[in-house]
Amino acid sequence: MELVEVFCNTCGEETEQEVLSESRDLIIRCTRCGLTSRRPVPPEPEPVFVKTIVSKEAESFVCRSELSTGEEIEVGNYIIAEDEEGEGFGVEVMAIEIGDKRVKRASAENAGTIWARAIDEVVVRISVHDGKKTLPLYVACDGDDRFTIDEIVNINNIRARIDHICLRNGIIQRRKGKYEIANRIKRIYAYRL
Predict the structure, then answer these.
(1) Which CATH class name applies to 47-118?
(2) How many CB atoms lie within 10 A of CB 134?
């Protein structure tokens, strides 16, 4: 059952209306007074295609994102970018360009270029300290994989316990049992077992 907010002539105000049929016109019924009425189907917003530069570790490539007219996009939003073969993947908006300026927020039709980073597959950097030296390790994983403080991980036959996690926004997580998802992690620090 789909509900929409529409002005009801009987109630004299906007009320929730149940959509009974959706063909050429919407047939709706007021959930308060029961009045059934016919309304024209609102037009679908026009799609806007915005050039999107996607960074995936060491390489960047040009894609496009389909947004709706009037849609607001801002840094930190998660959207879908499509490459020239039509393959779509999740990205996080890192910057928006309008002309020569970078802004934090823009409407879809004003955004010239969106700068984003791929979040569906990421490489997590792990620094493992063994008392004398620190080993840099790299783990390719899904962007929504979890890493937990005090968890024991096994990477390339090296067992280590996660001590703390540095996030992309500058926060450092140290509390035992606290987890973070891979696409938010800048670096994990661990001790070799």
Answers:
(1) mainly beta
(2) 13
